[in-house]
Design a protein that fits this description.
By secondary structure, the chain is an alpha/beta fold. It is 35% helix and 19% strand. A hairpin with a 2-residue loop joins strand 8 and strand 9.
């Protein structure tokens, strides 16, 4: 583990031998640790500000682990792009938690991370002590997936970070009207890295092949059966007000089906809300504190 000022880099080996990475914030404490799982093309840096808040609070500081899936961030690229799938990535998370000797945790999943949480609930139900789903649920709207695929396929290669910010605002600005200039810069720095003096998206380009076979003209299979696996744990479901992936109707149905579920809609943000903004760190921390109490 290479110790840094505010977090540690943790490298471990997947069951197939690939070298994977996670960031570890804070120390062990009596509070339940938190595991953060990012979206499709995102990485552990997405959670930096949020993880700092949880790991540095005066009360109930928490150990936070933010994962890079294979092919993203500091994790190695997989020569077999077909392994960029939910089942393999869920297994990778289990391998990382085993290496870190974490037997249970609260899980926060943004987009794809939330889908992985659905699988973990079926694979290792005792692992989950609380769940936060960030703009994801059992029903994925085809319009949202089409939007994601379109902007990933057409993404140009910018010359500098200022150009990246301008491009991201052009694509997402309408849905994320609440973001400040600082928010946009932080967002861009989380998803791009420098390569040869130019910014590049921090994921294996082969990852996009996994989106090519999606037939968005047909209804997508839902995950309501897997969602039932979350009924036994405290749940907070967050939706961006302008999200095209998680509908308001699905959010309402999630609350109806899950006993005691809490929901939260973030104004002026789309898919997916930035967890370090809009007062979300305090609200999520309060939910986790309450979940610890209900589990006591």
């Amino acid at each position: 583990m290479t110790v840094k000022a505010r977090f540690s880099d943790f490298f471990y080996t997947a069951t197939d031998g690939l070298r994977l990475h996670a960031r570890v914030y804070g120390e062990n404490s009596t509070a339940t640790p938190v595991v953060c799982l990012p979206g499709l093309t995102r990485n552990a840096r997405d959670f930096h500000g949020f993880a700092l808040y949880l790991s540095r609070r005066r009360r109930r500081r928490r150990k936070v682990i933010a994962f890079d899936y294979r092919g993203r961030g500091q994790s190695a690229y997989d020569s077999h792009w077909q392994n960029y799938n939910l089942a393999v990535e869920a297994d990778d998370i289990l391998a990382g938690l085993s290496a870190l000797e974490i037997e249970h945790a609260a899980f926060i999943g943004t987009s794809r991370g939330g889908l992985i949480i659905h699988l973990l609930a079926a694979m290792r139900p005792a692992l989950l002590k609380a769940v936060v789903l960030n703009d994801i649920g059992p029903v994925l709207e085809g319009e949202g997936l089409a939007h994601i695929r379109a902007y990933l396929d057409a993404a140009p290669r910018p010359k500098n970070l200022e150009e990246v910010v301008a491009l991201q605002r052009a694509v997402h600005g309408h849905a994320f009207s609440a973001l400040t200039d600082e928010d946009w810069r932080r967002f861009v720095n989380a998803i791009y890295r420098e390569d040869g003096g130019r910014p590049v998206a921090d994921y294996d380009p082969a990852l996009l092949k996994t989106m090519s076979d999606l037939d968005l003209d047909k209804p997508l299979p839902d995950l309501w059966p897997q969602f039932e696996g979350l009924f036994r744990v405290p749940l907070l479901a967050i939706r961006g007000e302008n999200s095209k992936l998680l509908s308001a109707e699905t959010l309402q149905e999630m609350a109806r089906r899950h006993p005691g579920a809490k929901t939260l809609t973030v104004s002026g943000q789309g898919h997916a809300p930035l967890l370090e903004t809009a007062g979300l760190p305090k609200r999520i921390a309060a939910f986790l504190d309450s979940a610890d109490g209900s589990a006591a």
